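Re: beginner question about structure tokens

> Can someone show what the tokenized structure looks like for a real chain? I only ever see the sequence side.

Sure, here's an example I had lying around. Input first:
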Amino acid sequence: MTKKILYLIAALLFVLVSYQGYEYYTFIEQRNQLVKEKGAATTAALRDQVDGILSKIVTEAERLAALLGQNEYSAEQIENLIKESALSIPEIQGVTACYEPYSFAQSKRLYCPYYDKGTQEYLYVEKNYDYTVKGAKGTDWYTGVREEGAKWVEPYFAQAAKDWYIDYGIPFYFGEGPNQGKVRGTITMSFIASGFKNLIHALSLGKTGYGLITSQAGVFLAHPINEYVGKTKLERIKANTQQPELVAAYEGLLAGQTGNIEFYDEAIDDHTLFYYDKIPSSGWGIGLLFYKNDLLEDQLALNRRYIKMALLFSAFLIFLIAIHFNKDYLDQTEIWQLSILASILLLSNIWLIGYLKHTTLPTSNPKQSPPIVDNASLNGFIHEQHLRADTLKIPKATPIPTGIYVQRLEFENSYNLNVGGTVWQKYPLDKVETVTVGFRFPQMSPFAEAAYVEESYRELVEAKEDEAGYLLVGWEFRVTLRLNLNYANYPFDKRHLSIDIVPMNNQDHLLFIPDLASYTYTNPFKKSGLQPSIEISGNEVLESYFNFSLETYDADFGYGRKELYEEVPVLHFNINLRRILLNAFVTYLIPIFVTLVMMFILIFACGKTEERQGIIESMAAFFFVLIFSHIDMRKEIITADLIYMEYFYFITYFMIIISTFNLITYTKNKTRFFDFNENQIFKAIYFPLFFLSVLILTLLKFY
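And the corresponding structure tokens:
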């Protein structure tokens, strides 16, 4: 009868294990399908969104060209027309109506008004340069359209507007008179390249994904590396790409094809998906790159399935063993075999849970923004702050590019972090005399004895073709920061180091932003801003990145303007650390396991005797060894939380108590349970009981 029950339970567990395996397979397939569908849908959304905008621009340009070709307008009327046209399409930056020499009026050689929605002002291009000269720098937007007809112009740097532009140009013609049918001028609908980045930023690409758009010639119109826009072709990137799947995708993108590829990226230990497509109205190419795990962010659900399968499989094995040993009497060898197998299974499950917890990346702080990895996300945040300023009727904050390079990191204790390195900032020249140049670390420890922040260099950088001039100021620093760290999961905790950098004076209306252009990489896994040789004893650096949070203070600091201290943007430089477990295990687990083994040897060696004083003294010695190790751990890790590693001590204390009770009872009295095979039952369950207790508490803590 007993054997039938065991067979029934084993069969039931086999069904549960099989179902869990099927459910896991289904979950993985659904997960992969979800990623592919999300990638395809996001790519299609970007394609349709860009195509819709471009189609509107083309339609409006054709309407405006028809009006200017068929009618004579005064300068004021033309300026009103281009203003109304610009305002009718939210996505464009401005509209230009340019005339051939003496085509607007015999008394005026050139006339080319441009309405800029950003400044809400008119810019007269003819005052800056002669746009009709073929082959001159920055004139193809006009001369190319004049000679070739309506087209999307390759990106160019607008000399007058000082920005990279992407234009749709269309010629308009004399409608009557001796020049009827000849080109009288062109209409240009201007779209700033950063506008595409804003479109991409609005899409869900995960923490580190990015998008790109290329012209028909393969020139980047949008790319996470700002320096590529307008200057670099996809062919160059393709030539420097080592991943063959990505090279094939770039070739497909250049050929105007649609498709996707998937490959494993060893650098970030994740599967990468790249989708590419073509925009129908312009022939431009778009590409979106996603990281699978980054996009899903459901590692906890996957880990729980691993754990559930492991537990069910272990239970199934235990019942198979029980069926194998189903006898009226088990000899000593079989009892020890059961003990060893049970200990191995329990220890394997503990190891699996610890491994999953240790290798899972830390979750992002919900109070902070996602990592700022490209100018699209950065511009989106700046735009939000400017909208808030408009709503509150306060001055818009001036963005100040700020960078940090950390050369030294060392923990002084559980919460104080010693940091050394360089901070640099770029101040617009028109702000240098009116604001307080500098920064502060609000987390600086009030008891830091040697805080050092000293200006190390200052240089005036002249304006370049595509960059305004600025004052570059750099500081060397060595400070102690007080951080709020959580040690409840020690040694599987991930320490999140957030270095806050804020302006000296909120009255200056400055917005510190990451100086992304100064870093070779902005992907968090590339660990930008950290010296490559940097080492933190007992820790591994996982990632580094910039992001923002919005802090609200409960005081106005005497200024009488509380809005200055509500939702104040704070720039964070974040470093995520993972412990190297060997140090914690050698320091704390070895004393525990040595104590357990010594206790087991004592239990194994004890026989029937009236002398029990030695037992109590030995157990007391084991207890004091553990309690001093426990105290040392609490001294090193100062926290009000009950940390995970302490459970091992508490369980070992429990083992000391029940082992003492067992030995005293066994040596003094005759008990059927303890006297069986000279206390073999307790000896056999000793380690399985310990590992079972650890497994239960580990599940309660991490599952």
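Each token stands for a local structural state, so reading them left to right follows the chain. The mean pLDDT is 85.
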